[in-house]
# Entry
Amino acid sequence: MKYGKFITLGIETSCDETSIAVVAEGREILSNVISSQIDIHTKFGGVVPEIASRHHLQDINGAIEDAMKEADVDFADIDLIGVTNGPGLIGALVIGVATAKALSFATGIPLVGVNHMHGHISANYLQYAELKPPFLTLIVSGGHTNLVYITDYNKCEVIGGTRDDAVGETYDKVARVMGLGYPGGPKVDRAAKDGNPDAIEFKRVMLEKNSFDFSFSGLKTQVLNHVNREKMAKKDLYIPDVCASFQQSVTDVLVEKTMRAAAKYETDRIAVAGGVAANSALRDALEKRCREKNIKLYLPKPVLCTDNGAMIGSAAYYQYKAQGADDLFLDAHAGLPF
# Structure
């Protein structure tokens, strides 16, 4: 074992980042190479699956070489290969899974398929050495909005999810209608800093009294209607106010439901995961509420919020320790259940 530790090679290709990482003992990042396709997809206003797959194919071998060189390891030092096998774009997932299976077959290194959402949760283990289950997690990303109670490293209870649009998807659609471009989340967040969050009263959809589910389609429609009405009336549309008011509505719902879930499960630890976990308004609001309730908040740094191979390496390590390896019949599943 290199460094006298268990070494995992993590492979992530679920969407538009080709990311390869080397992780020691499921907690220590030795390298984390991320090849982003944002500039490629920006001109299309979103991720084009076929283009994403093509670039994964072009980039993955070079990313593996770069990650292993940065970590100063070779295949003789690798103890495990972990790869995202779902959920995600099927063509993108297939590139990662096929590469991982080929490497496993050629080297004899054990292989583990990782659920992308477990990967996002595991990003917290990479930053916080003291974090261990049980704890509550809010997962907020382009495709998912979930509240999950983590009972063990490989066991969880999904207590809430989105009934329509995921929060990151909502950000992208709102950004598009205001001409901000892709990716929407960071652009709306930046614009909101110059706006008044109380300028426009957008709805806060809480659903049924005791529900931990989310719904953002109504809010999205309300924002679109507001923008269209203002344009038709030939009024000046101050985009920062729209962004700030929209973002405040989203943040209020996410934070309120998260705090309710923490109270129900009597936990004093909350972790946040997924790309939208990098949102500044959400981070500030959660930090404030958690201080008030004396709850420990775990917020990964932005590079660990986005899709990355290190989180997959961490999740794979704990999965392998508990369940052993997968065989070479491992397949990619676009709708892999959480």
Observations:
- The radius of gyration is 20 Å.
- The domain at 133-301 is CATH 3.30.420.40 (Nucleotidyltransferase; domain 5).
